Amino acid sequence: MDEVQGWKEIAGHIGKGVRQAQRWEKLGMPVHRVAGMDGVVFAYRSEIDRWRLSGAGPRAEGAAPGPEARETAIAEAGAASFPRTHAADLRVMLHGALGHIAIITCGLL
Q: Phi and psi for 106 in degrees, rounded to 5?
């Protein structure tokens, strides 16, 4: 039978937990809701399998997006959308201070 009913069966079909299946629905996994019945869902194995094979679904085994995805996001949004963090500012200040100490210690000033 091609139909799976409820989040538990859908999750079992994709080999993930219920919460992950619900997240995947938000990413476009084909899940159908029964009109007038809140929370009642079903799906077709063939639709889910086709969706996963099409590449529209998540990357392999929960892998996080690679560095190229971040670079693309930065390029599309502009660097101003990704402000430096407080930790990055502290690292810059620390490197500067260590540089000054090294210069003073070596007697270069």
A: -80, -5
Does the pTM exceed 0.90? no
Gap between the Cα atoms of 3 and 24, Å rounded: 18
74 in Cβ contact with 82 (< 8 Å): yes
CATH of domain 3-63: 1.10.10.10
For the stretch 25-64, pLDDT in tens is 999 999 999 888 888 999 999 999 999 888 877 765 544 4
DSSP code for 33: E
Structure tokens at 96: 């500067």
Query: Which residues, listed in sequence order, are joined to residue 44 by a DSSP beta bridge?
Result: 3
